[in-house]
Every structure is written in structure tokens, then in C-alpha cells.
Amino acid sequence: MRNNKFFNLYAILLSILTFTSAMFASPGETPRKIIVFQKSFSNKAAQVDLIKKTGAIPIKPLKIINGMAVYLPEQAQSALEEHLGAEIVRIDEDIIVHGTAPGGGEQPLQELPWGIDRIEADIAWGDSNGTMVNVAILDTGANLDHLDLIDNIKGNYNAISSRKSAADDHGHGTHVTGIIGAVNNAIGVVGVGPQVNLYPVKVLDRKNEGFLSDIVDGMQWCIDNNMQVINMSFGSLATNQAYHDAFIAVHNAGIVQVAAAGNTGGAILYPAKYPETIAVSSVDLADQLAASSARGAEIDLAAPGVGINSTAIDGLYTTMSGTSMAAPHVTGAVALLLATDGTLTPSEVKVKLKNTAEDLGLPTIEQGAGLIRADLAIQ
């Protein structure tokens, strides 16, 4: 009898421990998903209550798509699926995206980077330098104290850990940020829009990758904080409806979205493949498509992306290549354009940039409408 009691107690304790370990399992052990709710089921407290009752673990709300990022233990999946069609529309994968550039060597030289010169951004400064335009950079963050960035950084947000700053722990984001808006001073480099308001939004980690839910969270922050243009130098081959819905929502909010096409040498990555973005391929000093650049019918514009010198995480400067470097040239040009006419819609901005692009004589699947020309765009 005592053995039976002991066995029963042991079984109960084992089940509790098993449940507890599932509840607090690490992201690497427990699948991470996005729950998208019915429009009629929008109460955050009710959403959290439903998720917890099924054994899933809430991570963060995703207001922009009426969803919730969760850790979803296997035993909770079927419990949540019972609510499909009622409170829940669908359960999407929390896709992992990657920054679209490799690293490079240190080059702490003072110069006008060739990409800035090639798109004639310095000519455009006679009429516009991007003053007062709010530019968000969804990336690994930025070196918030870099002497070539600090005067233009007006705020930041960490979507991975909201109690921390968007300090860069990889370097990708710092480099991208400098291409857009490094200060026109006596040191280092200068960005396409040397007086834009920069807002680094950390959505990628020290490995230069991140979850879709953190990107959606960062996009919501951009809507809530009146961003006018977003640079997205990341991508994935995978997509789902939650992914696309977020970009539709940001587009409808009047924010221009610029996306790197990817370094696949072939297929364009998402989100660049979405029509709501401006998809950017990469060209070199000879105006030829970079061998690694993605190509396809969705390409809108080309921009310099090979051997680009910009700000580095260590406070100095470095050279990188990739569509990650091409996209911020277009983002900076968008800022210059919006500084001259802030009433333009995202669709109108795209049309204006494409109509004023320089034809490089490349196939449209490589260059889209052509090379971005900042000087012509603002005329």
C-alpha cells in the first residue's frame, strides 16, 4: 500500500516537473510560433488567457496583425488547434530571417564613399539633406555612440529585449546606419542623408538573425513612433501570411519600406519580394550586377553594394558588400525626397524613384528601373 502511495506521489511530481520544463523551455528546445486571432477577438488579456490555458507560453503581443508570439510545446499545439475558426485564424511559423551581408576589413579613412558619389547624393544636398525625416533601421542595432552617427541618432528600440537599448552586438546594423545617415563632418564617411533622424531598431541578434515576431514588433514601433521610411537589410526564403500582413499594414500606415533583395545569386528574398516594399539589387563600381545579388521580376531599383565603406561597431570604419549595403542607399534617397515633399505616399515614392532612375543597360530582372539617382529624384 505504501509502495502504491509512493508510486502515485512520484508520478504526480514527475508530471508537474514535465509540465514545468515545457512551460519554461528555452527557445532552442520549444518551437516558436505566431498565433493570429480573429478580428473580433482582439482583447489582449483574453488572448493571453487562452494561450496559457492551452499550455503555450506568451512571448509578446503583435498588435499590427492581431497576433501573439508564443513558445508552443508539442502538447499545446493540438489544444490551440481546437480554437481554429473560433478565436484563432491560424498558427504561423515564427520565421527566422538573416541579415543580407557578410563582414569586411577595417578602413578608417576619411572619404566620400563611392556609392554616395555614384548616386549623386552629394549633388542632391544642395536642395535636400534629409532634415527632419524619421528613418528606422530594422537590423542588429547600431553603435549608438559612434562619432559619425551620434548627432543623428534621435532614438532607438530593442524589439528582442525591450528593457535594453538597440546597441549593436554584431556590426551589420552600424554599417547600414552609416550608409543612410553618417554625419557630414571632418571624420570618416558621410551618409546619403547626412541630417536625417536615425532610429536604430534592433530585431536581429549577435548572429545577425532574428525571429519574424521581433521584426513585426519593430514594425509596430515604427507605426507608433511616426517613422517615415524603414530600411530592412534582411530576408528569408520562407514566407507566411503573418509576414505579409505586417508589411501590408505598414504600407497602409504611409511608411515607405525599402528591402534588400538578398545575396542568393538567384531568387529574391522576402520581404523584398512583397509589392509593398522597394526591392533593391546590388551593383559594383563597373555598374554590373554583383554576382551574389538576387535577381527577378520583383526588383525595383539597383544601388551600389560592393566594397562600401561605412561606420563600424568598434567606432571606426569598415568595408562590406551585399544587398544589405545597396538598400540603405535607396533608403537615404527616400529621406532626401520626403524632406522636399512629406505628403508623398509609399506608392508615389516608388514611382518617383523608378521614373528618375538611371538605366544601366542591364536586364530588368537585375536592375529593375535602373540605378537610384538621388539628385534626379528630388527634382
From TrEMBL:
The active site is at D139, H172, S324. Keywords: Hydrolase, Metal-binding, Protease, Serine protease, Signal. Residues 1-24 form the signal peptide. Residues 132-369 form the Peptidase S8/S53 domain. PROSITE patterns: SUBTILASE, SUBTILASE_HIS, SUBTILASE_SER. The keyword Protease applies. InterPro entries: Peptidase_S8/S53_dom, Peptidase_S8/S53_dom_sf, Peptidase_S8_His-AS, Peptidase_S8_Ser-AS, Peptidase_S8_subtilisin-like, Peptidase_S8_subtilisin-rel, S8pro/Inhibitor_I9_sf, Subtilisin_Carlsberg-like. Gene3D superfamilies: Peptidase S8 propeptide/proteinase inhibitor I9 (3.30.70.80), Peptidase S8/S53 domain (3.40.50.200). Transmembrane segments: none annotated. Pfam families: Peptidase_S8. Belongs to the peptidase S8 family. PANTHER family: CEREVISIN-RELATED, PEPTIDASE S8. This is S8 family peptidase. It comes from Sulfurovum xiamenensis.
